[in-house]
Design a protein that fits this description.
The complex is a heterodimer of chains A (210) and B (260). Chain A has helices at 3-43, 47-62, 65-72, 83-107, 111-119, 124-155, 167-176, 179-208. Chain A has 210 residues and is mostly helical.
Chain lengths: 210, 260
Amino acid sequence: MNWYDFLLRYHGEILERSAEHIVLVAASMAIALAIGLPLGIALVRRRTLQRWVLGAANVVQTIPSLALFGFLIPVPWIGGVGASTAIVALALYALLPILRNTCTGIAGVDPSVIESARGMGMTPRQVLWQVQLPLAAPVMLAGIRVATVISIGVTTIAAAIGAGGLGVFIFRGVAMVNNQVILAGAIPAALLAIVADLGLGIVQRSLANR
Amino acid sequence: MAKSDAEARHGFALECRAVSFRLPSGAALVSDLNLKIEYGETLVLLGRSGSGKTTTLKLINRLLEPTEGEIFITGRPGSAWDPIELRRGIGYVIQDAGLFPHWSVERNVALVPELERWPEDRIRTRVREMLELVGLPPPQFAARRPSELSGGQKQRVGVARALAADPPILLMDEPFGALDPVTRADLQKEFRALALRLHKTIVFVTHDLREALYLGTRIALLAEGRLVGTYAPEEFLKAPETEARAFAASLHTGAGAEDA
């Protein structure tokens, strides 16, 4: 089948799978941010705990994604076959870069700036919101950017546990030994990753140049 | 800041009574410090690196808490102050200026008035006054970022920021220490004139005897966390104590600021 006929036949499904893909990434990133940002901020002053939490997140990161999806299936409440299991696994993957960059970003703020902020009578909350977070924002956003790109890639594997997304084409193409079908999943997934990377890169630079 | 306590004005702006600060390891950074600072004087804390000058400053605005003794600020014990309220009434200038790099010069200077919720137009007027006062014309400098300033200009902004809410007390931790000698001399000269005009109580930390003699109305010499003595500038060079003589000798080697 040439590409013209292929697209004529599959463009509906490509769009549908892309939408599924984006929903999976967005949902897992939302969870990872909701946990990672406050946790990272809470860990800034707790050095020992920070080492343990980052260590744990590191271990999660080393589990092969297919295995992690598999491990989660028998877990009650969050497990089972389908999108919700995939979202939990993807959120776990995205957690490490977000946590790590939140911690290092805040720790990297010039101590003399913090000292003068405190010395001038800012409350700890004001120091956090008006000084530490704005100055750490570019580093934190770099973590979010890495997490998003990883997430878009790993989501292709979520199709293996019936979560849908562009991975459906890839697994089907592998089974059919049909490169065209594989590329119908792989190319849009790559494009999504590139667009997300460029978009967040622009936001990151604009934060750094404020 | 001085509240209603009438007795406060009759006493001292700052008074350290038997103040010590020990690290959890037991090492004492400040030991049994007794020091009275009058309203309106510029007291210079002079000492080598590690003599406890900066620690003393941080004990005054409660960035550190004394492990023994008590510091009275305008007659009221430090422990009775809310630390946030206390710090807003004490200007603080440090060596690297510590300006917020993500804020304009104007917003940096407006910091404490904004924390204190002054009305908008009063803040704007005050910021302009302060920038004029430290020799940075607002039209040229108000909108700049700290990264667009020279070292000397940053310190000027630091001084303007510390003075913005008109605190009666000013703490300065080697504010001119990182500047080149020419810029430093300029700022010292201007600051001396400013201090004479403003009648603030100033505690000024330095390891540069020349600076201490030039700016101080009184010099408190610290060594290894202990007070060696307090001197009028004109009597310092004749003081018999070993540490005082070591500093006096440094004048003639040309080392001056770089004893550390």
